[in-house]
Write a structure and sequence with these properties.
Strand content: 5-15%
CATH class of the largest domain: Alpha Beta
Number of domains: 2
Radius of gyration: 21 Å
CATH topology of the largest domain: sialyltransferase cstii, chain A
Helix content: 40-55%
Order of helices and strands: HHHEEHEHHEHEHHEHE
Number of strands: 7
Oligomer: single chain
Number of helices: 10
Strand order of the largest sheet: 5-4-3-2-1-6-7
Distance between the termini: 70 Å
Structural class: alpha/beta
Shape: globular
Length: about 280
């Protein structure tokens, strides 16, 4: 067995180079291999308990401020003082008309497919994708990104695209963020907390509502929503069960009282229950 001092020195070097999650994996492997390899129950605890809790600490306390300081200059430059159009894939997205020049265009997940379908020739200022890696190709996201002109691409894991040479010319910048990062939400809903809006054990918003958080936090002049309907259907008719619907509704009750620069482009969308209708011109 390696000496404790030598192993700790190596672990410190690994932490500096690779981060906390990597070190947790190394600790587990060391303990299982060298100390506890005969005890299956202890191995299971280390494999599924310690690593899971380390990741929870990392995602809850370490990543949010790190991602903010990395991403804030990019997002502020993209958003501050501008009109922002947020396009989701909900049923009201079918009502989307012409997009005036000078408007920052944000979309997420399948919303990029709508713009491709409409043969949108402009720049998508921000595209946010947070689905699992195994859905990246099966849902056609890769093909949609290749066809688009994207300024800022936001993903929960940039390894999805790191080795995709076809995508390298499809976007100008790529930044990391993830849907359960409530850094912006916490600051936008004060004095409420995410747990105060909790529904069905969900304390995070949908992708479309995350784009709204970006726009509000970085002080967009006006924000227009289309296809952000807080319902389970897509604009092309397919059903899609969303676990965040009730949380999104609770969130809009708070945001619509605090901010008065949010508008819906659809009178028939459920969003019209929270914010006024206003055409984009």
């Amino acid at each position: 067995m390696p000496s404790r001092t030598g192993y700790l020195e190596k672990l410190i070097r690994n932490y500096k180079n690779h981060g906390l999650g990597y070190c947790a994996q190394k600790i587990r492997r060391f303990l299982v291999k060298e100390v506890l390899f005969k005890n299956e129950r202890v191995e299971h605890f280390i494999r599924h308990g310690i690593v899971r809790h380390v990741k929870k600490i990392q995602n809850s306390f370490l990543k949010p401020p790190l991602y903010y300081f990395r991403n804030a200059p990019i997002l502020r430059k993209l958003i501050e003082g501008r009109k922002v159009l947020i396009i989701g894939a909900g049923q009201s997205a079918a009502e989307l008309g012409a997009i005036p020049g000078g408007v920052a265009v944000f979309t997420c997940n399948a919303g990029l497919g709508l713009l491709a379908e409409r043969e949108f020739k402009g720049v998508v200022d921000l595209y946010y994708y947070h689905k699992r890696r195994d859905k990246w190709k099966t849902r056609g996201m890769e093909a949609s990104v290749v066809k688009a002109r994207i300024n800022v691409l936001v993903m929960n894991n940039l390894r999805h695209i790191k080795d995709e040479t076809r995508l390298q010319n499809a976007y100008s910048k790529a930044i990391a963020d993830y849907n359960r990062n409530n850094f912006y939400l916490k600051r936008l809903i004060k004095p409420y907390r995410a747990n105060d809006l909790k529904a069905n054990d969900v304390t995070w918003s949908s992708a479309g509502m995350r784009l709204l958080q970006y726009a509000l936090y970085f002080k967009a002049a006006e924000i227009y929503l289309i296809g952000i309907d807080m319902t389970d259907g897509y604009y092309w008719g397919e059903e899609n069960a969303r676990i965040q619907t009730q949380f999104d509704e609770n969130l809009m009750k708070v945001l619509s009282r605090k901010f008065h620069n949010i508008y819906t482009l659809s009178k028939d969308s459920a969003m019209a229950n929270y914010v006024p209708y206003k055409p984009l011109d």
